[in-house]
Amino acid sequence: MDGSQIYCVHDRGVEGGIMMKLIVFSDSHRRNSSDMLVIIDEEKPDAVLHLGDVVDDADDIRSVYPDLKVYNVRGNNDYGWRAQDVQDNLIVCAGQVKLFLTHGHLYGVRRNTKALAAAARRHDCQMALYGHTHEAEIDRDGGILIANPGSISLPYVAAPPSYLRLVIEETDIQPEIIYLDQKR
């Protein structure tokens, strides 16, 4: 293992078709905190995943929603004492699905997602989630589903801020990119 830690969203099994909703944010950069909180209020997810830049934003979510599971990784703009205990990669189990979380900068995602898909495959994950590029996308590399929620605050392309909604039931993963202008 490369130091990735494994966490489970729910300790219970998925008998009876338990469905989970996860919300994925990335690249918030200490902006749009209020939008993230509104999204959490509206979506009522089982857990929130934050893919880095900036860890303080994930901590803010934890402070407002102390009973909500929040998992986050460190991004390229996360450094210093606030980020020293935050991992570069996490594996989150949601039902029977394993998700590989990373910011993406350590896997060269600006070029392509081949190294990211290979890392997810090495850890027996069905999906890889990353940020860093500030561009939302859903793709597939072989059997690995790959998704980037885009930036909740600073999209690089001519697109509105975005996040990712994941609905997971047993081994079925339904990803959907949500643009903030769709919600208004």
From TrEMBL:
Domain Calcineurin-like phosphoesterase: 20-170
Keyword Metal-binding listed: yes
Coiled coil region boundaries: none
Keyword Metal-binding: yes
Entry cofactors: a divalent metal cation
Keywords from the UniProt entry: Metal-binding
EC number from the UniProt entry: 3.1.4.-
InterPro entries: Calcineurin-like_PHP_lpxH, Metallo-depent_PP-like, Phosphodiesterase_MJ0936/Vps29
GO molecular function, one term: hydrolase activity
NCBIfam families: yfcE
Family of the protein in this entry: Belongs to the metallophosphoesterase superfamily. YfcE family.
Name of the protein this chain belongs to: Phosphoesterase
Organism: Butyricicoccus porcorum
Lineage start: Bacteria, Bacillati, Bacillota, Clostridia, Eubacteriales
